[in-house]
Amino acid sequence: MSENVPEAAVTGAKAPSTETNEANGQPADAFLAGSLRHAAGPYFGSYGGRWMPESLIAALDELEETFEKAKQDPDFLAEIAELNRNYSGRPSLLTEAKRFSQHAGGVRVFLKREDLNHTGSHKINNVLGQALLAKRMGKTRIIAETGAGQHGVASATAAAFLGLECVVYMGAEDCRRQALNVARMQLLGATVVPVTNGSQTLKDAINDALRDWVANVDTTHYLLGTAAGAHPFPALVRFFHEVIGEEAREQVLAQTGRLPDAVCACIGGGSNAIGIFHGFLDDASVRLYGFEAGGEGVETGKHAATITLGRPGVLHGARSYLMQDDDGQTIESHSISAGLDYPGVGPEHSYLHDIGRVTYEPITDTEAMDAFSVLCRTEGIIPAIESSHALAGAIKVGQRLAAEGGDPAERVIIVNLSGRGDKDVQTAAEWFGMLDENGQVKGTTLSTRRPKGFVQEHGGTEEQA
Amino acid sequence: MSAIGQASVGRATESKAAAAIDRAKAEGRAALVGYLPAGYPSVPESIEAAIQLARNGADIIEIGIPYSDPVMDGSVIQAATTEALANGFRVASVFEVVKAVTEATDAAVLVMTYWNPVMRMGVDDFARRLAEAGGAGLITPDLIPDEASEWFEASEKYGLDRVFLVAPSTTPERMSMTVGATRGFTYAVSLMGVTGARAAVDESAQRVVAEARAAGAERVCVGLGVSNAEHVREIAAYADGVIVGTAIVGALRDGGPDAVGQLAAELSRGLPRAAAAS
């Protein structure tokens, strides 16, 4: 793996040579200095950049400037650290999954418990950071896109906490799949706008958020939820998630006295993955795995395996791997997981793929749901379906490590458990055949008592409707 | 901008879009620039509509390429391009439309496209085929000069116009850089927003035009939210050209190619400078 890395310098040098690319040398320089960490953008090799309407460039410049200043500001960093500790509940635990390990070739598996953060996923790390930046820029309104609803909930949370107006764009299909999260956002005071364009999922929600942003950019910050999009978003979103990898590295050293053999994460846009990978990018002995949504199987065409099967293109502001047809039209992605159902991927992942530092593989819906079930029953943890892709990948990686010989108990894998599965209970109940013909969980509708507040059998009053 | 420096070494072909604007100017009026998506509702009908548009007063025709993720477009154009895609539109058909309209009319024909379809075909291939079809060049709503090195090279090689957008939010530095990168005309976005009809032309439009001129732009056309002859008259008073999109697409949707011709005739009545001054 590491022997491929020198290509990084070559790839970096091949990036477009226009004036604004002067920062372009930075990833290559960082690499020549022996580090892949803290890549500043706008380019990651030939990926990234700003493929955006001119109308938004001033806002991106303002965001970049604000971010660069904030990164150097001890007060800002202290504020983030304080919120992480006393609001989000960081550091998140690193839990050894001893019974789950038996399914992964007997290697030791540790779960980075982002599911235990406030709002139930890693998304809170990024939204608090960006919401603080929004306030620094004097913006009073944030907009966000959401797939699974986790980023929308996190954005609504940060907006409530910091006194900002919040509008969340969510594909109508995702609203259906994640109705609980729609209600959560509304309870938190956000406006949820169901998007009925295109495939009615995450990419279309991003399109509508961009349309809102271009019209309201004076007052509004677009709080992008993943490490993708136009510069500075990929580097900025990663920055706020780097805490995942930093903590995990310290924790695994403290608990096992060594670095892990492998780190596994799921990839949609790739924010949780880039966050945990970042802590280990320069540890050549640590193999990094990103698991994409294989949907019904990559051979069926119904998947979201962007790096596995995509080709470089531009979407939503960055050059990166992209699921597209021969005409450059974006192909609709498919996944049981709303959060991974995206035909693009963050540009840094494309770069890490090309230089061979991270291995990207697809995991099917079935494999993910099997792993979901295994974790529920072996560890008493209900994972998000997104994170279940990482768990399924860890099972494969663990079995491969065990097959390499030696005592599997000497091998260590970290899985980024990026979110909890409460939001996915309906989908899982459907998948596992737990629902009756009315869509109710079987056996839950047998009570003969009249519900409290029940007035009449078929009253049809408005209160009941 | 070393890329632009290199680009200027290329073949010196006359800009078709600039020539069309200059012809209008010589007649004492602003140019009318009209947009229609290729393949809506079908390729033959889009050709017919574009010919009607040109024969009834449009000096420059913008042919849009339907794209899956049109982030700069409002609901009317989105609906039209989505329908074109659903009807099986293929990107290569745009050259057929350009060729047919160029051959049938005197209008300069530009293609307006999001960048990924061009990148997918290959920038050089796309440019070559566009030039072969008689096209004037490209309008690129999501390509800024900063990312356009391949396009500079190809547009110089094939003598094509590069129409970049400038906006009310564009800084003086970027205005100067973008105007310098442009060939044909500078596209001044009248407001912060997406395409679509508006009740009034945003007051920022005139400021953007003035800033583009101050940055050295010889020809500036105004687009976004321009939907009737009154808007055209207002903009024609200070800009070199007026760009109308959504209203024309709406006319095509509701009344077919004939309605496009009628609207173009009506819009072009707003073009004369004298009328604007009166």
Would you mind describing this structure in some detail?
The complex is a heterodimer of chains A (465) and B (278). By secondary structure, chain A is of the alpha/beta class. Chain A has 2 domains: 2-50 and 89-119 and 241-424, Rossmann fold, CATH 3.40.50.1100; 52-88 and 123-222, Rossmann fold (3-Layer(aba) Sandwich), CATH 3.40.50. Chain A contains 17 helices and 14 strands. Chain A has helices at 7-13, 25-32, 57-71, 74-88, 98-101, 123-136, 150-162, 172-177, 179-187, 202-216, 233-256, 271-278, 306-309, 347-354, 365-379, 385-403, 425-431; strands at residues 43-44, 47-51, 94-96, 108-113, 141-146, 165-171, 191-195, 220-222, 262-267, 287-295, 311-315, 317-322, 358-364, 412-417. In chain A, helix 7 links the parallel strand 5 (141-146) and strand 6 (165-171). In chain A, helix 4 (74-88) crosses helix 6. Chain B has helices at 2-7, 16-26, 43-55, 75-86, 93-104, 115-121, 123-132, 149-158, 172-181, 204-214, 229-236, 246-268, 273-277, and strands at 31-37, 60-64, 108-112, 137-139, 161-163, 165-166, 186-189, 220-223, 241-244. In chain B, helix 3 (43-55) runs parallel beside helix 12 (246-268). In chain B, strand 7 (186-189), helix 10 (204-214) and strand 8 (220-223) form a beta-alpha-beta unit. Chain B has a 9-stranded parallel sheet. The interface between A and B is large, with 41 and 48 residues.
